Structure formats: structure tokens, C-alpha cells
Amino acid sequence: MSKWEEQLAAAAPREQFQLFRKMGVVGRLHNFVNAVCISHKRREAFNEVQQEVNNELLYSFSTLELRQDGGIRWNSVYLMLLRCLELKTSINRFIRQQRELTDALDDPEDTEFNALHDRLSEDDWEDVKELVDFLQAPYEMTKRLEGNNSVSGFGSLWQTLPNLQALWAHYSDARDLTSSSYLTSAVSLGLEKLNTYFDTLIMTPDVSFYAIATLLHPKLRFNWFQSHWKNFPQWYKKARKSLEKVYNEYLAADAELDESQQLQLPPLTRRKLPSGSNYDDLYERTMAVDIHLLTNNNKKRQRRVGQLEEYFESLVTDLTTGSEKDLELLNNPWAWWLQIGRNRYPILFKIATDYLSIPSTSCDCERAFSSARRTISNDRNRLNAATIEAIQLQKGWLRQGVVRSSLKDLEALVQKSDKKSDLEVENSVLNFSFSST
Hints:
single chain; about 425 residues; mainly alpha; 24 helices; globular
């Protein structure tokens, strides 16, 4: 907990109000949003102002609710500022009306601690827009990490380091370009925190699971670390040592593999890389590997190597001589290991099976608990553990297509009912029921 957070926790409500006001436009908007949201009368008055603005601008959408920051929600400050930016005209008008009412009451004490009395200038709104633009990248990276890997492709452990690297590049660019002193200070603190994260994830543990999962991405491998961590050789050396240690453990446990049957690198043939990649995008630029770092492999004599060395050194071959289908598979690590890496690197495939299935955050586990809560309702509170486990697994398998259910066919049949008469639909459902039984 920071010093400011300690002061906030020990402060009275009016002292908290002043602490947030000293934070600049973010703190003033925090006070404003809280002041509106805690009062039903103020919420109704703010909705009326929105309707007035919408009628004047010929908008057709209904009123929007303000979003409060704080709590356990990720990116809550970004979402609060984004909504305030959307409601800029309504907020300015509402504050002006409240100031007029407060001045009419002639209560200076109430004015001093009235969050609705802080008028925002155009420069303040420009600062808000700059903050929203800056915080959009952390918001998108967070969404990538909290996804369900089996459904959306996001949320796997290997994505943690590339996402942190993308944020590090984003923060570094913002530090050089921003003119706001508040944002400059925040960016500097953010960079320090990111460096702490990298050190904690890579150097602190004896074996870095995050590094191993990233190394097992067929498009990244060891060359990604060398491309993006040129100034931190101790980090990528530790990453490689982590995989080497785990590889030796799996190799020792696999008695059937004859390591003496070592693989031989094929001769390299250069081919032009596919065009159309959008490297201007922050995440795409982070996922890129510097191909020039791999050109030294052309000078090496063909030599007999083990699976781990061949996997690292064959990236240039896969990028330049693979088919279009193989190049597409490089973006889907699990599909690549199933179709290509499984036979080429059997020991590494076992490691990939274990490490690529690890979620990057606890969001998926929390979703499982939320789903189980709907299963164990008040009317079903005596289900034993084995039954709950079977129901939850069945739900997950059905949603992800692991098992097939005739209910899917029935659902597709019912969806076609718009083009049929009621009698035809009833006969089709009856025929389906008899065929299923």
C-alpha cells in the first residue's frame, strides 16, 4: 500500500474529498462521480440533463450511467474516465446547474466540500482524453490475459511476458511524448513497476513458468527474448536455463526416448516472408521477432543436435521454408504442437502440453466458481462433491465441443422453424425425439 493510500484509509470523508481533489482532474472526476452515484435524486437529475442534451443533439440512445472507479475491478479508472468523456457535455451542464443552485443557497461551507462545484476547463478535458488514450492499451492487454484460452485464444500463460513487453514499450513511448506532468510521473512509476514484474517473474523463481511457456510458442522461441531484451541478457539467459532444467527432468523421466538418435538440421533456403502483417499495431510489434538475429545460422555447419537446440535453431527454417499453412500455424501454438511439433519434438511436446494449458490469471477459475454457484442453488444444496464435479465437467465439455449432445441438433432444428408451419415443426421435433431414443 502506498503512502497516499494509507492516508486515504485513515482519513475522514471530508479529508478523503480533499485528498482526491489534490490528484487533479482524475480526483475531481472521482469526487463528482461518487457524489452523483450515492444520491438517487442526483442520479435522476443527471439523467434529465442527459435527455436534454440528447434532444438538442438529436441523439437516439438512452441515458448512460456513470461508472465509479476503485474496488476490485480492473481498469476501473480507465472505464470511469471513458464514460465521463462520453458524457462531457452533460457533465459540464450538470455542474453549471449545481453551481447556480449552490450560489443561490449562499452556503460557503457546503461549497468548499461540494464535489459538484469543481468545474472542468477545456484543458482538463484534454488531459482526460490524453489519459483515456494512454490507458486504452493496458485495458486491451488486460482483456487478452483474462480470456479463456480454449475459447477465445487469450488467457494462456505464454501471453503474460509479451503483454508486459507491449506495455513496457507503450509506457516508454508515452514518457518521451507526453507533455502532462501528471502523466509523466505516472508513466515513470509504471515503468518501475513493470521492471519489478519482469524481475519477479524471471529472476526470482528457480524455474520461470512464464518464460518456459513463452519459449514454447513456435513463433517466439528463444529469439523473441533476444530481440526484445537486448539490454537485459541476464533475463533471457535465465529464461533459457529454466527450459533446459525442465527439459532435462522430462528427458530423464522418459526412458523410452533414445537421445542418441539426434536430429540433423536441413539446409536452409531463403524465402520471402508473407506480406500484409500490421506491425504498426502495438501487440503485433511486440510479437515480432528480429529475423536478422537468425542470419548467423547460415554460417554454421550442419551438426548433430538434441531436440531443444534444434527447436531453438529451426525458427529461421520454419519462417522461410514452411508452407502457407505452416506459417499460419505458427500463430496458434497449440495447433502447431499438435500438427507439427508433436512428431518433431516428442519431449518438448509433453512440456508444451503441460505449460501451454496453464491460464495466465485466475479469471477462468473464478468463472468456474461462479458457474458452480448457479449449479449448487438453494434447492440443490445437498449435492455431493462427485456429482458437482461431473455436472461442471459436463457443462464445460458441452460448451467447448469436447463431447457432442443431440440437444445441439434439436436447437438447430428449432431455429429453422421460422420458414415452416407449426404442424411441420411439431412433426419434425417428434421425429427427432423418436430417432434420438
